[in-house]
Amino acid sequence: MKTFRILFFLFALLLLGVAGLLAVNHTVVSPGREVGQQVDQLNGVAVYYNGRVGNVTGRNTTADGYNLGLKYQCVEFVKRYYYEHLDHRMPDSYGHARDFFDPSLADGSHNARRNLTQYTNPGQHKPRVDDLLVFAGTLFNKYGHVAIVSRVADDEIEIIQQNPGPQGSSRATFALRQQKGKWSIANDRIVGWLRKE
Question: Boundaries of each Peptidase C51 domain copy (predicted)?
Answer without folding.
Answer: 49-195
